[in-house]
Amino acid sequence: MKTLQFKTNINCGGCIKAVTPTLNQEAGAGNWQVDTTSPDKILTVTSDQLTAEQVVQAVEKAGFNIAAA
Q1: Which residue numbers delimit the HMA domain (predicted)?
Q2: Is residue 25 within 8 Å of residue 50, measured between CB atoms?
Q3: Cα separations (Å) of 7 from 1, 52, 65?
């Protein structure tokens, strides 16, 4: 398993709810989390198959900003 981390603007429960279907589809439920207490709102994804590019595309598709951490 590899761990990917990104800075995002996913900063509240409503944002997490909005991005959950997309990230669950791409990474699988339980394979990602957002630290909304961090100033950078760090998204951590654990996956053997996903690339950083795929995660970026999924989060942007859900309407959020994302950049490499």
Answers
A1: 1-67
A2: no
A3: 20, 12, 8
Number of domains in the chain: 1
Quote the domain boundaries for residue 11. Answer: 2-68
Measured CA to CA, the distance from residue 49 to residue 64 in angstroms comes to: 22
* CATH value at residue 30: 3.30.70.100
pLDDT digits (tens, 9 = 90+) for 3-13: 999 999 999 99
CA-to-CA distance for 17 and 50, rounded, in angstroms? 21
What DSSP letter does each residue of the chain carry, written as one string? -EEEEEEE---SHHHHHHHHHHHHHHH-TTSEEEETTSTT-EEEEEESS--HHHHHHHHHHTT--EEE-
